[in-house]
Amino acid sequence: MKNNQNDSSSELIKRVTYPVTHLPAEKTSAEELGILCDAEVSSEKTPGKGVSVYVGGRQWPLNVDAVKNVSGAWMWLRITEDGSGEISASDTQYLYAAVRFLSDGLSEKLKENLAEGILIEPTFSWNRPLFDGALTQYWRSIRNFDEEAYVKRLAECGFTHLEVNGLQAHQAMEEGVVDEFYPQFYNYAAGLNHFVDTRLTRGLWPTQYLEANLNRLKYLASLARKYGLKPGIACFEPRSLPEKFFARYPTLRGARVDHPFRSRLPRYTLAQDHPVTVKHYRELIQNLMKEVPDLGYISIFSNDSGAGFEHTASLYVGRNGGPYMIREWNDHDAIAKVAGESIVRYLRRMKEAAAEINPDFKVFLRVEPFKEEHETILAGIGDGVDLEVPTMLVRGYEMPYSHPKYKDQKGVAFSIFHHQMDPEESKILTDYRSKGIEPILHYSPSGLYNHEPLMGIPFPRMVDARLRSLVKLKINRVSGFGGLMNTEKTPYWPVPEVIRSIQFTPELSVEEVLLRSAKKWVGDNRAGELVGLWTDFEEALIHQPYVPHYCCLGFIWQRTWDRPFVPDIEAIPVEERRYYEKFACVQDNNPVINDYGRDVLFELIGKDDAWKFLKAFDVEMFPRLSKVLEQAKKSAESSGEGSEVFVDLYDRFVAYECWATAVRNVCAWVGTVYTYLESEDDAEKSKMETFLQESIDLELANTRKLLELWNTSSTEFMVVSGIAENGFIYGENFGELLERKIELTEKYRNNPPRIDKDVLWRIEPNRQLWD
Question: Residue 632 region, left (φ>0) first, then alpha (ψ -120 to 50), else beta?
Answer without folding.
Answer: alpha
